[in-house]
Amino acid sequence: MYSIFLVDDEELELEMIRDYIRWEEMGIYVAGTALNGRDALEKIEVIQPDIVLTDVQMPVMNGLDMAKRVSELFDWIQFVFLTGHDEFNYVKSALNVGAVGYLLKPLDLSEIVSVIDKVKRRCEEVRMKNRSIRVTKSNIVREMIFEQNEERFRNLAASYHKLSRHTEPRTYTLTLLGIDAPHAAQPGLSLEDGMARLQTFMEEWLADKKLEADLVVCREGELGIFMDAASHLSRFTWEDLLKQMQNTLGFTMTAAVNEEPEELSRIQDIYRETRQMLEEMFYVGNGRVIYAKDVLRQLESRQIPPFQETAYFEDIHQLASEQAAQKLRDYFNRLVMLRIRKTEVCDFAIGLVESLLEGIHEPITESHKRAELYHAIYQCRTIIEIEAIIMDFAGHAIRTLEHRFMDKNARLVHQVRTTIDQTYHQAITINSLSDQVYLSPNYLRSIFKEKTGMTIHDYLTRIRLNKAKELLADDSLKVQDIAQRVGYESTSYFISLFLKSQGVTPNEYRKNI
After folding, report:
1. Which of 127, 138, 126, 137 shows the shortest CA–CA distance to 165?
2. I need a labelling partner for 195 at 20 to 30 A (CA). Which of 235, 323, 404, 485 fits?
3. Is residue 420 within 8 Å of residue 437, measured between CB atoms?
4. What are the distances in angstroms from CA 484 to CA 426, 471, 478, 499?
5. Buried (b) or exposed (e) across 328-348, using 16+ Cβ within 10 A?
6. Does this model's pTM top 0.70?
7. What is the pLDDT of residue 87?
8. Is the separation of the CB atoms in 221 and 252 below 8 Å?
9. What pLDDT score does 201 carry?
10. Cβ of 204: how many Cβ atoms within 10 Å?
């Protein structure tokens, strides 16, 4: 529907026009009324209707003067004039200020319908033109953000200024909305669909508030709102708007609001600064409005602090889930305070998960499973999500150990494997292991093979060779030294085992690292 504003100095006649003409049947709703041009001008500046139906002759400010003033502010508003004088001069004056038509008093219904149909066609043309201009401006803004050629950048800026039709210099602000995995809230909803819904919501909201802004899809899942600094939204408005969006769309998003007004020529700097603000969600979490004051980049560090790994694993093996969880929470809180970079946090998490699985004798051996773990952690948008993944694996480890401890033989095999893991560099025999668990060597061999699918000798060899591969990364260590460090007195025996297991000698393996 289109909105219409009615102006007439005769109050009774104004009420008749407002109440007795069937505006809704014509696809029109009355947005407001005024009794003179000056009052109308003040209200129209706020309401910004599509159409103004106004009397020509009025006190304080006549309809023609009012129309001229309004047209200077809002050139898209359409005017229809009312007059009781069927004189060419009035009609000509009305048409000269951009009126679509005029109506003579007393009003004739069929004539009103005819003129309103004409006005609505003009309104639709204006909407289509403005929509085309908005799309073009948005495309220009996006090109300017990433354009590296200076001359091309200047040409784009000139085109933007021309389309904006501003005579005086303007400054702008930028807000970035980052969608937080819409499919998590609505399974089957793609990021592309989420972006389309978000863009439609923002277009309708801006139109309802009579605000202009360029909506720019900067990257996948990231919508930029580039607007004149004079129209910039308050913090309270942004907080409220984000809640409205999330309630209406059904998924969360994070907003980075750059309140610092800048000239168009600095748009690339504005975007870079605002995107750094958006990345702060990694530390503060999803679904929030982030301002420059929230960004603590000066503290950002690549030096990750030490973690109480030994104590953490002891809690896991003692099934002390709450103590283990608290150690991890405290550590991640410290990572947030220090603003440790995402890459370092992800690498730490991957290493910890792998150690967790090795500790319960479920190491990740298949490359595709390792790739899945890397992908899952690096895809996390917040540090909270990474912490949750580790918590899940820790829970799995504790449940696995609980199950094993309920099975007497599984508990004994776990004890033997742990002994091998910790003392692989020492002389280990089946007799020494069987003595520790008070079983005969043959019975230990039998239950170990049953529970693990491999012999004790094969397990010991695998642990030793895996440790040897780690040590081969150190060029300062000789193969002979490495053999002794992993429990082999005979270097030649170590080399033969390594060749049989890996298909290459230790030195050949080292060259390919």
Report:
1. 137
2. 235
3. no
4. 9, 11, 10, 17
5. beebbeebbebbbbbeebbeb
6. no
7. 58
8. no
9. 95
10. 11
Q: Please report the pLDDT score of residue 71 as a whole number.
A: 87
DSSP character at residue 424: T
487: number of Cβ within 10 Å:
20
Query: Cα separation of 439 and 442, whole Å?
Result: 8
* 3 state DSSP class of 80: strand
Nearest to 81 by CA among 459, 66, 73, 178: 66
The pLDDT score that the predictor gives to residue 93 is 66
Tokens matching residue 321: 């889930």
* Low-confidence spans in the chain with pLDDT less than 50: none
Of how many residues is the chain composed?
513
- What one-character-per-residue DSSP string does 128-175 give? HHHHHHHHHHHHHHHHHHH---HHHHHHHHHHHHHHHT-SS---EEEE
Residue 185 contacts by C-beta under 8 Å, 6 or more apart in sequence?
250, 251, 252
- What torsion do the CA atoms of 163, 168, 173, 174 make, to the nearest 10 degrees? 20
> In what side-by-side order are the strands of the sheet with 172-179?
214-219, 222-228, 172-179, 253-262, 289-291
263's CB contacts (< 8 A; 6+ apart) are 169, 170, 171, 172
What is the distance, to the nearest Å, from the Cα of residue 461 to the centroid of all Cα atoms in its chain?
Answer: 47
Angstrom distance (rounded) from CA 52 to CA 30: 10
156 in Cβ contact with 143 (< 8 Å): yes
* 213 vs 229: CA distance, rounded Å: 10
Q: How many helices (H) and strands (E) does the chain have?
A: 23, 10
Name the phi and psi angles at 175, rounded to 5: -125, 135
CA proximity to 299, closest of 337, 256, 347, 331: 337
pLDDT (tens digit per residue) in 4-54: 999 999 899 899 999 889 999 899 999 999 999 999 999 998 888 999 999
- For residues 45 and 49, what is the distance between their CA atoms, to the nearest angstrom? 9
Q: Pairing between strand 222-228 and 253-262?
A: unpaired
DSSP, residue by residue, 299-365: G-BS-PPP--HHHHHHHHHTT-HHHHHHHHHHHHHHHHHHTB-HHHHHHHHHHHHHHHHHHTT----
The residue with tokens 């699918």 is: 453
What three-state secondary structure class fits 178?
Answer: strand
Which among 78, 95, 84 is positioned nearest to 28, based on CA atoms?
78
For 408-420, b where at least 16 C-beta lie within 10 A, e where not — what string?
ebbebbbebbebb
Helix axes 342-359, 367-378, angle to 10 degrees: 140
